[in-house]
């Protein structure tokens, strides 16, 4: 079994080296020693140790408690090791939900027990989270029910299990003086189990040697599923006893004889950790329950729409009439022409003058071929304030199994402002939203910029896009997206055309219409306060950028589009990988539509924003019918199959030609010649036929998937 790793955070180097020697001698590994809070956060994020041993007084502006708060948010356990035992410091430290609080000077055995207990307890918590993810709360996951608790008063209720009556009396007096309520003292193991079930205390202070047949460890095993924290207080610290005790996942193990301040800090951190853990588990379960409900909504919607489509197909085949399709296509046709007309107007120029500090986040999973070029491109940004670099780069390495980690380690030695966050299984591979949220937890910027690992930009990118954050209610800005390998083949060229239309027409028009654009995931900027207001990215969402955009719009915020700032990305050159990517995009689009349609209708935003947002989300469905309409028209013209289309000529004409003005305008705005634009428009029309099988593939995927997952596109850097 691989030895557990401990990151030492200590401002006194002599003390740190002594600690390192002790830990290595015990059997731990020490991947690094740091002396400041800032370094502690960076090293913990990059190395992901099994536990962080944290002093409180550190070098730099960030103390150990502030650092512990950020480190704990990354789901890394922290144990404090400090000379401070005063109430104020303890309460501050307790607010970070640490897994232990050791007071200097300390016996070496106390240190060993505290670390082993913390690692075991955190592993049990992770196991609970995984169990909830796949089975749900209550199915093998113990959790104290508030209905089962006896709330006599607000003081924490402690049950003392101790076979020495004098020791038990001393403990009762000491704990009462500290503000605890001792509900009872028992000396017998079997009686201890009965008292725990009767009183449901907030914590059990457990000796190991008891009268009767059951010892304290056996009692802890019996009451484990009641989810009541246990702290062992025992004179026995031999390896065999400790190993048995640690397997019960206690919240502490304090050897006798003990100091009262040690016992108090152990009990306080144990109670806080249990409360925090319980709250986190409930929130996770609530989130998963909500997402399971959303998947039911999605599947119901897919069945409903599928039934309508099948009914229309049967009707059309039976009556040989497609008149209904002409009227249906008239709706998106008119809206498309409206969008084209709006895009002819010039958007309002940016008016922002501020230069906020920017945190650049790059999620990376197996990106050995692209990540270096991406980081070097971002490192050349010309964005300074008062002569100082005004941005940081944070790469979140999401469980990469290739050489991504090696490349990043080398780059970090070259760029001191490059920060690395490492995610390991089982947390890795869950979804891009989770990855980005880890970056947000440690970032320092007022503005968060997100780039994919294949992104390439010019040095003036931030200088061009930051001014678009020109109003207090502008939550984000999307840059223009282009393909750096557009000339590779026809498929990559069509992706360039597609994004030209999206940027030059659709996003431009939405910027004119009340600055109601959408974020695209690559080259997007958001103000950190708005990200925090909506609790970050939705890790369950397949398209986290679209999900965030809808939430920001429903809150009444604006999203702008900056055509001057361009982010270049890699177009997918092969049809199989391309189709897989687009199935994910279509699935994300449809899930957002089905889940947020009702909330959008109820949102307190202007009617035109509701209509525009809903139209944007149903655009895929309408486009599928548009392409189907063209196929029906071709079948009629070639006499392969005949369907009557009896709508007025003007409706048929508008429905037929409305596809092309936006396409031509999007291409022409990139200064492409007229003849070549016409050719590309026809090619793009043929390219869009893939939307028909894509539509059905996305529907099948939504019906058959059991959970939402991140199917990342592979980049080659070519």
From TrEMBL:
GO BP annotations, alphabetical order: phosphorelay signal transduction system
Keyword vocabulary terms for this entry: Membrane, Phosphoprotein, Transmembrane, Transmembrane helix
Residues spanning the membrane: 301-318, 324-344, 613-635, 647-664, 684-704
Organism classification: Archaea, Methanobacteriati, Methanobacteriota, Methanomada group, Methanobacteria
Name of the protein described by the UniProt record: Sensory transduction regulatory protein
Domain (Response regulatory) ranges: 5-119, 157-271
Domain of life: Archaea
Modification type 4-aspartylphosphate: residues: 55, 207
CDD domains, alphabetized: CESA_like, REC_DC-like
